[in-house]
Amino acid sequence: MRPAAQADRFGGGWRRYQAPLLDLLLWASLAAVVAWSWNGHRSYPLGLLLGGLAVWGGAVAAGRRLPLVPLFAVVLLCALDGNYSLGLPLVSYLLGRRMASTWPAVASYSALAVLGTPLVLSWSGFVAWATMAGALVYAGLFPWLVGRYRRQQRALVAAGWEQAEQLEREQRMLAREVRLRERARIAEDMHDSLGHELSLLALRAGALELSANLDERTRAVAGQLRAGAAAATGQLRDIIDVLRDDDPDPAGDAAPAGDAAPASDAAPASDAAPAGGPHPTGGPVPAGRRDPAAGSAVRADVGDVADLVRRARAAGMPVELRDGRPAEPLPPLVGRAVYRVVQESLTNANKHAPGAAVSVRLGVDDTGMVLVSVTNARPAGAPRSAPVSDRGGRGLVGLRERVRLAGGTLHTGARDGGFEVVARLPGRVGRPGAAVPADPVSSGTVPTAGSAADRRRRVHREARRGLVAATMVLATFAGTLGGAALGYYLYATSNSVLSPERYAELRVGQDWATALPLLPRREMLEPPDPDPLPAPAGADCRYYRSHGDVLQPRLDVYRLCAVHGKLVSKDLLPAS
Fold first, then answer.
1. Which of the residue ranges 151-155, 351-355, 390-394, 416-420 would you say has the lowest mean pLDDT?
2. Pairing mode of beta strands 418-426, 409-415
3. Confidence of residue 453 (pLDDT cuts 50, 70, 90)
């Protein structure tokens, strides 16, 4: 079950009150800071305090439908109380989380920067502008970016969950289809063997019915036995016809690609293994037209495996067979599964590792389980570190189903640069512990091209990478802006220093035109406000630094005032 579904199931009551409680917490956190600081300075009336808090509360209430309202409310309320700026990171983060489109936020931040720059520069000067620009970048854009990518991350995670569920459904449907096809083929194999036995049974019962040495009662019982065997054969054929899938090939004898024995292009057609197994003569037997006398050949066993290996070797495949199994015959279903394991493995080895040496081993362990192992070496010329896929295709999925129905298990995977298929099957019918394993489709363990957890981790990783990349871009922009502001500050500071020697050369009453060559090119960025000394009436006063050491905050300030082109006063404002 997805996390969102679990939250909806168990957290419905909390979700009903979550939004208003979080909005109340947001309003109260900033309102407490503003009210506490106002109690300390009381620089504006109580009515403005209450009005500002009411505006902030209304902006928070409207923020879920109109995410831009809290942003502009905080910026405007900063003109009343600078402590409202503490809410800028919160509203910026929520703006990124709540707004799907990007351009309204970008336009809003750009408008604040463009419209606020001349106002701040004219009212408060460069230092205040640099401070507010940094606050807009670090307390506005960065939180908005985090909220934006948090929103995208949640959307990607939701999309990843949907994609994972869809892929798993498709994979299960495909595995179920292959499983049903394999079951139908197993049923057809059983029809070949059982049909043969039932045909022989009906033939013998018919011969017994015609015997002259039997009484009428025994002859009637033999007739009933013959009729029952014939009816069972017909019913078995009808069931197989229902189980068989529709095949575009009208002959009905085409097999999936993975069911043919490995053979080169030069191999004769008689070396290909048909869907129903090899004919004793080595040629294919069309489906539905098998000779009843071929029943023993249809029930593939270890002898057929030896013939299969022989024909693969004749076709040019370097394959060897090591048979360590006792001579006792296998149950038909197990023998057919052994044959199919070797057949599919040789086909895959010829397809994916042509020319590689293949080893086929048959044996029996201490518990009586038949062991089948087919291993191909690393293909010539393949890198040692090349990954080997162990998912397999439809052939391996069907093979796993066949082995499971025979009471065994199948394991596939890479080994020493090559590939190995190992099957364990019961050696006799009714052996303890030979119960059919759980269906991998219904149990959810069918191999997939990548689990939902892997895809979810990949979605998280891509979202983090996008966040890091965007953060780096914004950090570069912020660093460039900060560097430019710092450079300008250093330039303006170094060019607003009036040395004590030149200050001493200035005389009250001196012509302003003759005093200008002795003055720096710029005034200081932060003149004393308010001015501790009264300025002459109608005078134009300029302020200069006494030194250019930016690491020393204490400095004397020189004030020069001129009226009608004459220097009327020169004052030293000592450091405070």
1. 390-394
2. antiparallel
3. low
Q: CA-CA distance, 30 to 56, in Å (whole number)?
A: 9
Contact 324, 362 (CB under 8 A): yes
CB 545 within 8 A of CB 498: yes
Alpha carbon 455 to chain centroid, angstroms? 3
Q: Between β-strands 319-323 and 566-573, what pairing exists: parallel, antiparallel or unpaired?
A: unpaired
Q: Are 167 and 449 in contact (CB under 8 A)?
A: yes
Beta-carbon-side half-sphere exposure of residue 254 (alpha carbons within 13 Å)? 9
Task: Map 442-477 to HEC letters.
Answer: HHCCCCCCCCHHHHHHHHHHHHHHHHHHHHHHHHHH
Query: Cα–Cα distance between 252 and 245 in angstroms, integer?
Result: 10
Q: Is 423 helix (H, G, I), strand (E, B) or coil?
A: strand
The strand order across the sheet containing 418-426 reads 319-323, 358-364, 369-376, 418-426, 409-415
**Pairing outcome for strands 319-323 and 369-376:** unpaired
DSSP 245: P
C-alpha–C-alpha distance, residues 378 and 346, integer Å:
14
| d(C-alpha 153, C-alpha 50), whole Å | 39
Closest C-alpha among 425, 412, 408, 421 to residue 325: 425
pTM exceeding 0.90: no
Chain centroid to CA 484: 41
Going from the C-alpha of 296 to that of each of 303, 328, 406, 516, the distances in angstroms are 11, 15, 19, 120
Three-state DSSP class for 147? helix
**Sheet containing strand 540-545, strands side by side:** 540-545, 557-563, 566-573
Q: What is the DSSP letter of 139?
A: I
The number of residues making up the chain comes to 576
Q: What is the DSSP letter of 262?
A: P
